[in-house]
Amino acid sequence: xxxxxxxxxxVDYNVKVRVKSDGSGVDIANVKMSMNPFxxxxxxxxxxxxxxxxxxxxxxxxCGVTQCQExxxxxxxxxxxxxxxxxxxxxxxxxxxxxxxxxxxxxxQPGLVILGKQAIDxxxxxxxxxxAALCDMPQATFASKVEIVDGQARVTREVDGGMETIAISxxxxxTTDLRLNEPRYVTxxxxxxxxxxxxxxxxxxxxxxDVKPHLVTLKVxxxxxxSAGIKVPDVATLVAKLKTEAKVI
Amino acid sequence: MTVLVIAEHDNASIRxxxxxxxxxxxxxGGDVHVLxxxxxxAAAASAAAAxxxxxxxxxxxxAGFAHALAENVAAQVLAIAASYSHILFAATASGKNIAPRxxxxxxxxxxxxxxxxxSADTFERPIYAGNAIATVQSLDAIKVLTVRTxxxxxxxxxxxxxxxxxxxxxxxxAKVTFMGSEIARNDRPELTAAxxxxxxxxxxxxxxxxxxxxxxxxxxxxxxxxxxxxxVDAGYAPNDWQVGQTGKIVAPQLYVACxxxxxxxxxxxxxxxxxxxxxxxxxxxxxxxVADYGLEADLFVAVPELVAAL
Lengths: 249, 310
Hints:
The complex is a heterodimer. Chain A is an alpha/beta fold. Chain A has 6 helices and 15 strands. Chain A has helices at 37-51, 68-78, 94-108, 127-134, 188-196, 235-245, and strands at 2-6, 9-11, 18-19, 26-27, 33-35, 57-64, 82-87, 112-116, 139-149, 152-159, 162-169, 172-176, 199-202, 215-221, 230-232. In chain B, β12 (196-200), α5 and β13 (224-227) form a beta-alpha-beta unit.
């Protein structure tokens, strides 16, 4: 069984982004970029499935600018066998990415697609579910445990109020939550090995996909700032302030 | 123009998040219809009909809807989607799971986590963990939206008397089976709807100490309990208590952060709270930069003292 793992290149999670003064977006020039943390968990899970003999090949995919090659090299350093870049400098929204991935699913016929539940830049939480719908595949989102048994994926999901377990027939789409696994550190020898692994590059047109945006971002602004309040010296003062000043208890 | 809200329910009653979603729907303009897809869910449909502002309730009943599986609920929504200008879900685990399936099948873009309705096609939503707010316009005929509940007041749960129309249920998917769930039952208010939230961080040190220190405070305040990602990852608190960018978004009247340093991902989940109290022994903790009242103290001393003083 092949496993396809889409990964996104995003602003590193430690970077606090700044809104551009003209309101056209956030400033990502000269900012550290990394693999979306949820996608790193997805790659790790796929590699573990191959190490257990459940998966035969792990293919990492990224859609976006040329520099996504770095993200794909990281995926291969974690353990993906090969990579596919769908290269474009156009803005890609989740629906367009889902359509590109659908074309690759048809080409590669994976038994499982594992990807992050959301990207930490646009915080959309859409691509996995959209891909599943377009491919008429079942989905298990927000996974904290994945087992492949008898041609099915048994997935424990993080839901409001606790956990639930569902069984979905393969092929299927799984999206990862934080507690699924802890991705391994990439080692220097594996980074060197990843440089030699195969990477195919397509353009959206090669896959016959129209990536035109369905949404337009009119402006981006700073959120309302919260100013720091006061420090209180002790618990008694805190309780008094909450009762008489804030009136919340 | 008619707006469809997908109700979140437990087959007997409507979940609070649906009420906030109805408010957002009313702001989009036009009549608001509510879809209740459930199993033996007549009581939930009646509850939906009582929500103020709802013009019609559509009730589809089938065993396949018992656990709100995305494949089945999305198919039911798609069966009626063409009649609507907007389709709204609460941005909860369930709404986030189902909405993109609907959008993809309609070949429309989805706008997630809206916090403001500017006009019928333009909405505000936070990006980059709430460090920026984007104004986004949809170019599609049908707008599929998920609604961040903290951005909208709840509609009144009573006062409406909408008619309930029964729909033919779509066939359940054979590709997915519900196996079981572990849902924690407790008497505390729901985290995202609570008036007071008390949250603990990694400084609590263990699951036992987390519960021993935080539970009395929550009991005393009638509060819901939350946790930072660090505390959840360390196993001190259950997964669904996580407050932050990728966990729960809360905006209570009072948020008490104990032993939480205040990573931007955590602040994204609670900085819209009305009053924030931070108890932390690190004077430099970033949580103090958003706290209305900061107490620089060891939480193991200060929290029991606070419980005694309340």
